[in-house]
Amino acid sequence: MRKAALVGAALLAAATAASSAVAAPSRHGVALSSLEQGVLTDINAFRAAHHLSPLRLSASLTAAARSHSLQMEADGYFAHDSFDGTAFWKRIQAFYPSSHSRYWSVGENLLWSSPSVDPQKALAMWEASPEHLRNMLDPSWREIGVSAVHAPQAPGVYQGLAVTIVTTDFGVRR
Fold it and tell me: How far is CA 153 from CA 77, 99, 159, in A?
């Protein structure tokens, strides 16, 4: 199994909490906020500019990403591994099983920023990190899950600030 990027991009800025309006469910049955939809659109545009196939939105990977964003917000930490130390790929595997697949691999990009972060800024932060850039440009990925959680006063490493935590989980099963 391939380990994903372990470097998180962080940008702190004072800003007012932005609300997350949920968009209509996509054809895959996943409801995305406008920020989440924008991140998905921008990652796929970035991949297209590099002659790579677009990623399909996965309900399973989105559930994994959303669960992790919510856990980091609630427990006040920022890491790929779970709060209890479980490896990120094991957490994702609970949502996106490898059973019946000859080949299975997952990766993850994380960031936390001011609540006003937009898809273009998220993409720029990941582009500036070699590990995150590699994930976005990995030709083996076929699916993606996207989550953005807004917290008005996040505990722990977020120091009570208003933040947005974004998780993208990448995957392939063959």
Answer: 13, 39, 8
Nearest 5°: CA angle at 150, between 144 and 152? 165
**Rounded Cα–Cα distance for residues 110 and 6 (Å):** 9
What pTM was computed for the model? 0.84
CA-closest candidate to residue 92, choices 9, 37, 149, 172: 172
Predicted confidence (pLDDT) per residue in 64-114, tens digit = 999 999 999 999 999 999 999 999 999 999 999 998 899 999 999 999 999
C-beta neighbour count of 63 within 10 angstroms: 18
Give the DSSP letter of residue 56: E
Q: What share of the chain is helix, strand, coil (3-state, %, to 5)?
A: 35, 20, 45
